[in-house]
TrEMBL record:
GO terms of molecular function: DNA binding
Region entry Disordered, spans: 123-144
Family to which this protein belongs: Belongs to the BlaI transcriptional regulatory family.
Name by which UniProt lists this protein: Penicillinase repressor
Entry keyword Transcription regulation: yes
Swiss-Prot/TrEMBL keywords: DNA-binding, Transcription, Transcription regulation
Signal peptide range: none
SUPFAM superfamilies according to UniProt: Winged helix' DNA-binding domain
GO terms (BP aspect): negative regulation of DNA-templated transcription
Statement: the UniProt record of this protein carries the keyword Nucleotidyltransferase: no
Pfam families found in the cross-reference section: Penicillinase_R
Amino acid sequence: MAKPDSTPLTEAQREIMEVVWDQEEVTVSQVRQRLAQRREVARNTIQTMIVRLEERGWLKHREEGRTFWYSANRPRTASLGAKVAQMVDRLFAGSPEEMVTALMEYRGLSADEADRIREMIDTAEVKSSKNPNRKLNKKPGGQS
């Protein structure tokens, strides 16, 4: 298996991965047919991109005769982390707090969403206390 690559997916790679995540297991031809509904794409281009996604650890394949069946090797959420980090860096000067504040002011949170976020924060704090090298952003003065 290829070593997982944490660099963000390109838009074209993400399109291919969306097809794979939706269908669970696909051939190159199936991916091409699905993408061709939106625009013309060459089979060789899709084949090359799929091979590169497999090399980066996003896809795995199994062989059935002469057909390669591809499936996701990483969950859909794995592609979002690097993109979100880029967005936080670019739009919010690297501050997750500013991003959350903007989101809450714009759209708000349901009680269930707030509860789940609290649980995620609690989990992150526990993990951070067990691994002092793990980054947990703190405000100046030691406030969290």
